[in-house]
Design a protein that fits this description.
Shape: elongated
Helix content: 25-40%
Strand content: 25-35%
Structural class: alpha+beta
Number of helices: 3
Largest sheet: 6 strands, antiparallel
Distance between the termini: 106 Å
Length: 209
């Protein structure tokens, strides 16, 4: 019996402490990795949410109403003249909390859609849609506190640039009781949509609500 007991070796307190420390260090390493991954995931989720909110909210706002100009437009020989909307004017400003927006023609896209046709109106020639800074500096950035005047002159539109291409200019223009839509697409933020119904025309210049 004594011979058997001599061959057995008991576990000392030092060995127990070494094993315990090893377990603690291993658990701490795993905990650090898990916490670090959690922080990275939370940061990424916050970035995605912030980016999504930025894209979902409009970065530009209409500062006042949409002002439309009307005139009698005559088509081909013998065609009766029609009262048509020939020009639209509105003002834009930066939405609260948004970064400055580049409003140059190579960064901003604008389209016009009526009941009969659709096409891009903010082109490099700058004749159909013009953007003029009326409050702010002279660069191409729309910044906080600045305001720009946007004019869309439908008489400058080339019929072949529209799809489908109208046969005559009276068919291009918007008539009373018809809908039209102007969409301004900045490089960041959601599309600014101006969707209006032209009322009965009783004046050459009217605010279209």
């Amino acid at each position: 019996m004594d011979i058997i007991n001599k061959k057995r070796r008991g576990m000392t307190g030092l060995e127990t402490a070494i094993i315990l420390v090893a377990f603690v260090i291993t658990a701490a390493a795993f905990a650090f990795v898990i916490l670090n991954m959690g922080f990275l995931t939370a940061e990424k989720a916050q970035s995605v949410i912030s980016s999504g909110m930025s894209e979902a909210s409009s970065s530009m706002l209409i500062d006042s109403g949409v002002i439309a100009q009307f005139a009698n437009v005559t088509g081909s020989t013998g065609q009766q003249s029609d009262i048509c909307m020939i020009k639209v004017t509105f003002y834009l400003k930066l939405s609260q909390g948004h970064e400055p927006i580049d409003i140059s023609d190579n960064r901003l896209v604008a389209t016009f859609t009526s009941d009969r046709t659709h096409g891009e109106i903010y082109q490099s020639n700058g004749t159909v849609m013009t953007v003029t800074v009326i409050a702010g500096d002279t660069d191409t950035l729309l910044e906080t506190g600045e305001k720009v005047k946007v004019e869309v002159d439908f008489t400058e539109i080339t019929l072949s640039d529209m799809d489908p291409a109208p046969a005559t200019y009276p068919l291009l223009y918007v008539h009373p009781y018809e809908n039209f839509r102007i969409e301004v697409r900045p490089s960041m933020g959601s599309v600014l949509t101006i969707d209006r119904l032209v009322p009965a025309v009783y004046s050459a210049v009217m605010t279209v609500e």
